[in-house]
Each structure stands twice: as structure tokens, then as C-alpha cells.
């Protein structure tokens, strides 16, 4: 009888099990790596006490590991720190994820860490470095608008929110991060007003140290609002001068990889850091041309893409998660939240920055739907990102009070849905033909609760500059 094939998930669990066995058997730290094809190998840190490759215990471990993980076995099942050219790139990498801590017991056991070596996807679970004071102030003014599923009205909501906030006197910057399917630019500016360069240009040029003097932002002239506010646009791609070449797709295909430093001692060149630099450059340009942005709206790509991962985990101080009450939405967010749940420090950092948006919520005849959506959202948060309530009555009141687990009725909790109403009049709306569309009564009615609630969650505008 033939052996059942080893699948991706089974192989990975086997690799983790063998890593823990090796850490306990040799008393050494072990890093489990997985490459772009999903193939795993064990790196054993034997720099202080080198292991012999022909040691029977080593040979047995290699054979057992290979048998349990094939065809997802690395080209070298076991690698040893004493033989690696630059072992610190693995054993001291700042994006390692701890699985088992080192135990200093009588027998001793090394730690086990995971180090993913992939093209995309690692940023969902990558811890956010502690930002500097300046970076933290920038992040607090950024709002990510994200939907696990597309087609839920996220981009239109971005434009409506930008117009509303500008109407309160704020300076608003909208950054189009839906790089595979740009759209918000068309709602904010006529094609002739798009700047020469976009976010993809900064990511490409910045990768080779050539990002100075890019024209990245333009003031919106197509979005009506009253007052002294401003709306600025940073598009996904630029609008070059007539006759100049511009290959958007070629740039898009090259932006996501983490890069090595251009020179010795260069700082972080990972995709997340480069995207942060691009957005900061846009903010700086608005400041130079007018005034510091009071709020930055990040129109993120939908789905499990690295753009969305970086936007939610690294770039934003508030993340609006668009949801419609159907199984695919909740299964999608459950996959995402479960990734964060496995990294408790990351989960604690993110959860209070999240808010559910009840997208496309019908206002007529749906009195029971919003409470039902709240129930499902609270259940999702309660089983993943909220602290688990201990049913053991031995815990003290102080210990229970320290747990973060907002009740269902808490209107300020992450799970409390912010509704956007939906009507048939919105279906045939063509913003390109009717530039006054945000001022239409049914549009204002549909988004009123959404815009006013988000405004309440934002930091106050920058103080007005003193007149000399």
C-alpha cells in the first residue's frame, strides 16, 4: 500500500516538531526556515560546540526530518551555525518569530524560532518596530481603509470621508495603495491634474537611492467641499508628460521584494520600510506645498496581500475594516485575526486600532441585520484578539479588570460596527460625470454616521500657524 503524500501543512508541523526535538536533544537554539516553495530546513546553532555531520544522532535526525517533510524538505535538511558563512543573518534576524523559548534547566533546551523566507506574506505576522516619536505622530494621523473582499465600497467611502474632513477645515492627504487596481484617483482628480509620479515610482526609485525630486502629490480640484480645508492626492501611478515612456506594469512587478542595502550600514530596506518612506515623502511634499496633513487616508488593497499587511500592521493608527455579513467575509477576517493571535504582542498592539465598518448596509427593512453583524464581529474578536475571559473564579477583580475584552454593547469597541447605508440610487452613480456627487442628499445620508464617527476617532487638527 502506497504512502499518503505529505502535504504543505503537515510537512510544516513535522518540521516544527523535529526542531523542538533537536533543541532539547542538543541543548542548542534552532531556527526553522521555509523558502519560497515552502521547503523547510533546520538551522542548528552549534557555534559554541560544533556538531559532527557524521554523529549518529545528527544522521538520525536528518533522516527522520527528511522522511517526515518530503517533498517539502529543503535542499539541505540540516544546516549548522558553525559552518554558515554569516550565521547571524539567521540566528539574530530581527524578523524571527519565537515558537519555544530557551529553557535553562538542568538538562537545558535551546529555543526554537521560525524564519520565513518568502516573496510576500510575511508582513501579516511581522512585529512592528517601536516607532520614533516623530514616526508615531505620523502614524496616529493615518487611517487605513481595508476590506478583505473587494466590491464593498471602500474606495468611494475614502473619497466621501476625504471630502467631509476637508469640509471641517482639515488638510487631508489620500494615498492610493490599491496598486493592482487603482481607483480613488479618478474620484479626486481629473486625469490632467494627476502628478508626474506615483507610489510605485517612489518604491522603484527609492530602491536604488534615486527618489529625490519626484512629484508625488497634487491638490484635488474635482472634489467639492466648503471651508478652508484641502484634499491632496498621492496616486498609485503617475501621469508622465506627453511622449515620455511610463511602464506601470514593469514597475509593479518589481516593488514587493525586500532589498539588501545599497551600501554597508544601510538601514532597513524591506518592503514595509520602503512603503513607509514613500508615504512619508508624500506627507512631506504636502507640508512643503501647503501645510502638514491633519489626516492621511490610505486606500488599501483588498485581500491577503502585502500592501494590506503593511498598511494595517505598520502604517496606520486607525484601521477601518469593511465587512458585509456573509460567510466569506468572516472566514477571511478569521484567517487574518488568527495570524495575529499567534503573535500575542502584535495582537495586543493592533486590536484597539481596529474598527469594523458595516458596508453596504440596507437602511430599509434591516432593523435586525446590524445587531446580527455586531454579534458576529464580537464573536470573532472574542475568540481571537480579545483577552480570553477566565471562567476560574479564583482570579482577582484586578486581574479580570486588566483583561481587554469589551462587552457586546460597547459602542466604542473594535467590534462595534460603523454603518454605511446603501440604496439603489448609489448603484447607478457615475462620479466622473457628476463631480458634485458627494453633495447629493442621498450620498450624505448614506455616509453621515460613518464620517462623523471616524472624525471622532481622529486626533485634533494641527494648530493653525501663528501669523507674524
Automatic annotation (TrEMBL):
Pfam families: CbiA. Residues 389-401 have a biased composition (Acidic residues). InterPro entries: CobQ/CobB/MinD/ParA_Nub-bd_dom (IPR002586), DNA_Partitioning_ATPase (IPR050678), P-loop_NTPase (IPR027417). CDD domains: SIMIBI. Residues 144-185 form the CobQ/CobB/MinD/ParA nucleotide binding domain. Residues 388-414 are annotated as: Disordered. It comes from the Bacteria. This is AAA family ATPase.
